[in-house]
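Lecture notes, continued. The same structure-token format from the folding unit now serves as the input rather than the output. Read the line below as a description of shape only.
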């Protein structure tokens, strides 16, 4: 009798990692300028920026690629899970604009304002 062929093993899984020319943009100064320019869209005055600056400096130092080794939270606003940013844009892994947009929307929905979020963070050590 002819030998029975062995089954072909399945191919290994493919992990897709988004690629953007130049990779992630860690530009804290640019992210701060962009965020300050978005406050009015939420009805907030520039007085809210100091709270936002303090909050996101504490959380991520305004780094697009900041990752919390303990929780896995990611990015400027420390989204958990990080994929929450995808609701603001497909470039969420690398774009400070997308992360800022998501973060401001999150703050508006959950805390009403950056100072509301900052006050919660000071009291609870998370937001």
């Amino acid at each position: 009798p002819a030998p029975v062929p062995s089954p072909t093993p399945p191919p290994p899984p493919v992990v897709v990692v988004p690629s953007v020319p130049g990779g992630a943009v860690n530009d804290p100064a640019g992210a701060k300028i962009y965020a300050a320019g978005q406050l009015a869209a939420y009805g907030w005055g520039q007085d809210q920026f100091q709270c936002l600056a303090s909050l996101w400096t504490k959380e991520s130092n305004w780094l697009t690629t900041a990752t919390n080794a303990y929780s896995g939270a990611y990015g400027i606003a420390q989204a958990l899970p990080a994929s929450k940013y995808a609701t603001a844009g497909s470039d969420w892994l690398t774009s400070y604009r997308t992360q800022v947009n998501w973060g401001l929307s999150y703050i508006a929905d959950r805390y009403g304002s950056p100072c509301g979020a900052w006050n919660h963070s000071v009291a609870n050590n998370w937001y």
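Point for the exam: DSSP finds four helices and no strands in the chain.
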